[in-house]
Amino acid sequence: MIRLPKLLLPLLLLGALAACDQKPTREQQILANLPLQAAYEHNIGRMAALLAMSHPQVPEDTIRQVLRKHLTVDDQRNDLFKLYSEKNFSDSEFATIVQATQDPAKAKALGDTAEGKALSEKLTGLMRESARDPKVQALAEARMQQVEDELNALP
Asked: From which residue to which does the signal peptide run (predicted)?
């Protein structure tokens, strides 16, 4: 009976060591290597500027708050998880995207290569495909309608 706990400890240690050797998931790589928060803030800023034109009575800071309420960073993160998934990009393609995102000079140089042009076309095609998806369109329209409704209800 004492033998079972003695065998269990080495097995648990081996399991823990094996877990340490696993490569990070694509989602972990996205979170670690892509500027998600900066991209989100940039998108919110652009949308707020556009909405400020049609809602001049609402301060832009209020518009940003309403946008953040209905268009969350989690939503954008999940969209990026789908876009940059292993299904869509190989490990080497994703590594190239990360390098281009982190270094503008590499991005420019990559854009001048056949590999870079193909990768850009692939990414653009996937983004267009997603934008044409009726479910994605319906969700985006519903969220923007919520934003509009809330902005219109403000004094």
From this structure: 1-18
pLDDT at 95: 93
Q: 67, 147 in Cβ contact below 8 A?
A: yes
- pLDDT tens per residue, range 16-61: 555 556 789 999 999 999 999 999 999 999 999 999 999 999 999 9
DSSP symbols for 63-111? HHHHHHHHS-HHHHHHHHHHHTSTTTS-HHHHHHHHHHHH-HHHHHHHH
Residues 6+ apart with CB under 8 A from 127: 83
Instruction: Report which residue type is found at 112.
Output: D
Judge whether 74 and 27 are in contact, CB under 8 Å: no
The one-letter code for the residue type at 1 is M
The CA distance from 54 to 46, in Å, is 13
The DSSP output letter for 59 is -
Which residues are within 8 A (CB) of 115 and not within 5 positions of it... i.e. 6 or more apart? 96
